[in-house]
Amino acid sequence: MTEETNIKGHCKYYLRIKRIFFYHNLQGVGCFRGLPDMGMHFQGQVHYLEIKNPKGKMSDNQLNFQEQCKEDGIPYHIIRSLEDLREIVD
Fold first, then answer.
1. Residue 40 and residue 42: Cα distance in Å, rounded?
2. Which of 4, 20, 22, 54 has the smallest C-beta neighbourhood within 10 Å, fewest atoms?
């Protein structure tokens, strides 16, 4: 199991415990390039979560998606540990 997969698992478990609706975006054919790993509904908004290991770098497509979210006022978070998610939710 990769470190990123491990972080995703911890985040999913934590969101379930907190009873926060979330969904995991499966990448594949026909998927919008740069779409973040997860989305969650929190405090009346959709938040996008891009899960990266502590040294992981974002692709150009991911950076473009993040910039579009910023322009549109949509919360976008890079999650490198469970603590990053807890800072948003708690």
1. 6
2. 54
CATH code for the domain in which residue 50 is found: 3.40.1350.10
Share of the chain above pLDDT 90, in %: 87
Domain count of the chain? 1
- According to the model, what pLDDT value does residue 27 have? 78
Tell me the residue range of the domain where 30 lies. Answer: 3-89
Burial class (CB in 10 A: 0-12, 13-18, 19+), 78: middle
How far the first Cα of the chain sits from its last, in Å, is 28
Residues 6 or more apart whose CB falls under 8 angstroms from that of 67 comprise none
Three-class secondary structure of residue 73 per DSSP: coil
Q: What is the pLDDT of residue 63?
A: 97
Q: Where are the alpha helices (DSSP H) in 1-90?
A: 3-17, 60-72, 82-89
Q: What is the mean pLDDT of residues 49-74?
A: 96
